Amino acid sequence: MAKKALADLSASDVSGKRVLVRADFNVPLDEAGNITDDTRIRAALPTIQDLTAKGAKVILASHFGRPNGKVVDSMRLTPVAKRLSEKLGQDVIKCDDCIGDEVAAKIAGMQNGQVALLENVRFYEGETDNDLEFAKKLAANADLYVNDAFGTAHRAHASTAGVTEYLSPAVAGFLIEKELKFLQETVDNPQRPLAAIVGGSKVSSKIGVIETLLDKVDKIFIGGGMIFTFYKARGMNVGSSLVEEDKLELATKLEAKAKEKGVEFLLPTDVCPRR
Length: 275
What we know:
- The protein has helices at residues 11-14, 39-53, 78-88, 101-108, 125-128, 132-139, 174-188, 207-214, 227-233, 248-261, and strands at 18-22, 57-61, 93-94, 115-117, 144-147, 170-172, 195-198, 219-222, 264-266.
- Helix 2 (39-53) packs across helix 3 and helix 9 crosses helix 10 (248-261).
- The model has no long low-confidence stretch (mean pLDDT 92).
- The strands form two sheets. A six-stranded parallel β-sheet has the order 3-4-2-1-5-6. A three-stranded parallel β-sheet has the order 7-8-9.
- By secondary structure, it is an alpha/beta fold.
């Protein structure tokens, strides 16, 4: 049977192996570069600690902000490495890049149970483009893959999708498994009334989610930039706010479908459009 979750992997499966773990360390910083909320770091600890306890060499990868394929010093993961070291009780090896010879050399020198943190994967355009050559370079220093970045798992990026072409097994970490279990139980055995909040900048990337939820929830709250596409579809003034012009008819149909199913379709009422 194929192993699809970290819980399926024994110590013999990972001991001495280089395990690439995609985490979500996109944490908020203050003006001085200090982490103001380390919830996402703490959420990744169970997966990291399980792997180190089993003797794996853990290689952490994450994005931070939106550097758009360029090196932005304020978006380096140095503060994350420091906080991880504190939480794990060991010095996390901080790499100044996420691919290349220097990274390979640092990983080659790792001992079982050690942890390394790669630099921001979004410093390369290949990450968000899901470029397979970039994914191949990311995967080159690992033997297997664990995805524990629940907040970005829906994106087909090089570090979430592309690397699985080169690493096997590729399994879900404890955070993703926990969130999926929670979602499954909530949807299968909901307490009524059941409400869902859907956010994002584009309606086009949420069509399937919204349509599925309309069959399961009593209320659906829409947030994020995509609200302006729904506003414009209603005939409202949205100024220069982001609108998917080719999805206006779809927005109207989604609201109509919600009405047919008796689902309250709610948009914010206190938002000012961009002038």
